[in-house]
Specification:
about 400 residues; alpha/beta; Aminopeptidase; six-stranded mixed β-sheet; five-stranded antiparallel β-sheet; 12 helices; 11 strands; about 20% strand
Length: about 400
């Protein structure tokens, strides 16, 4: 039942299901959480505006920032000011629009009024904790306000193999891209707006199910926390949060479109990280043909360990596979290192103190991994690349 329902929605409302590399991030659907008879959470009760109002105000600002600053990029809201839209219809709107990105904007709540910070969610059913967390319970509860809601949704049951298969199909199709935009958003919240970063998490959220594009649910903060509620209810707070989301979209759009352009130039090379690493992992006992002569000496010279707490690296891949960081697993590239995050392994090349040197390294790495891009770290935590460039030697 679930499998049929999920894929019927995808096929009926998206003429290009699972199209991942089709020319850029040109249509973005912004979903203001809740609306109409669904107020969302009520906060502390000190303000007349509820979650539905704050999420709408921020969503509208994100739309305006996109249209003003990203020519040729279309932003669509799923609802008008105080309209009630069923959860499943929100992704239907995005699918019908052929959207390249779906962002659902919400405010958090907790019985513990000291809880604070931002977090973002991607569709998933993580192996480590398959139970719905508090946020997922609150957001999924909105479906109970819909007429005949039972016919629109199947139970989100981690013990149901069919449910897990269907969720994993969508999760795998856009997982890396969804995590990428979620990570950008969280970095912007933390770096530019100085909000507490509670991280990126996977949950089986009803509003993200059925989306046939990268999708993320964003929690702006806790309206049940007096300080965060005051900030999010203020015009300045809404502007800052909307600007952070816009900047994250801009950075994600740049990376995706740069990646797509490189793929066009390198049509003879594999364009999906997971596919490349899966092949290397599953065929580890057979002979691997690696042309190490194409790996220039600047890699070895430039990627030695650095003493500075601020450094750059080139991210080359994301995979579920935990691979040994040896040249034979990475097309002859040396100085590969990895970190585990959100149940995935991220692989990087080099740790370099200057931006000029990492750009040279990236040029070489792109010959082997057309998806590669520069990232920056400080004390082993990822930071904004532009900020790092200002402070790097």
């Amino acid at each position: 039942m679930l499998l049929a329902a999920v894929f019927t929605v995808a096929a009926a409302f998206n003429p290009r299901p699972f199209a991942t590399d089709d020319g850029g991030v040109n249509i973005i659907v912004i979903d203001p959480g809740h609306g109409g008879k669904d107020p969302g959470n009520l906060g502390t009760g000190r303000y007349s505006d509820k979650e539905k109002d704050v999420s709408y105000d921020v969503s509208l600002l994100v739309k305006q920032y996109i249209e003003e600053n990203l020519p040729g990029t279309k932003a669509i809201l799923t609802r008008d000011d105080n309209q009630f839209i069923e959860l499943y219809q929100r992704t239907v709107i995005a699918n019908r629009a052929n959207a390249d990105l779906f962002i659902s904007i919400h405010c958090n709540a907790n019985d513990n009024h000291s809880a604070y910070g931002t977090e973002s969610f991607v569709l998933g059913m993580g192996e480590k904790d398959q139970r719905l967390n508090k946020t997922a319970q609150l957001e999924n509860a909105a479906r109970l306000l819909e007429d005949n809601w039972e016919s629109n949704y199947d139970k989100l049951d981690a013990s149901n193999p069919t449910a897990v298969i269907a969720l994993r199909a969508y999760q795998d199709a856009y997982l890396e891209q969804s995590i990428s935009i979620a990570d950008e958003i969280q970095n912007q919240f933390e770096g530019r707006v100085k909000r507490r970063n509670r991280g990126v998490k996977q949950q089986p959220l009803a509003v993200l199910r059925g989306s046939t594009m990268p999708a993320v649910l964003v929690e702006l903060g806790f309206l049940t926390n007096h300080g965060e509620e005051d900030f999010l209810q203020s015009s300045r707070g809404k502007e800052l949060m909307a600007s952070a989301i816009y900047r994250a979209i801009k950075e994600y759009k740049y990376k995706r479109e740069t990646r797509d352009a490189l793929i066009q130039v390198n049509e003879d090379q594999t364009s999906v990280f997971e596919e490349e690493l899966t092949v290397a992992h599953s065929d580890s006992n057979s002979e691997i043909n690696v042309n190490t002569s194409t790996v220039v000496s600047t890699i070895q010279a430039s990627t030695t360990s650095v003493n500075s707490p601020l450094y750059f690296s080139v991210q080359i891949a994301v995979s579920r596979n935990d691979l040994e960081c040896v040249p034979t697993n990475f097309k002859g590239l040396e100085n590969i290192w990895k970190e585990e995050q959100y149940g995935l392994y991220k692989y990087y090349c080099g740790k370099i103190s200057t931006f000029k040197e990492v750009e040279a390294l990236k040029s070489t790495v792109l010959e082997h991994y057309p998806d590669a891009y520069v990232v920056a770290f400080e004390k082993d935590g990822k930071i904004d690349v532009n900020e790092a460039k200002k402070r790097a030697p």
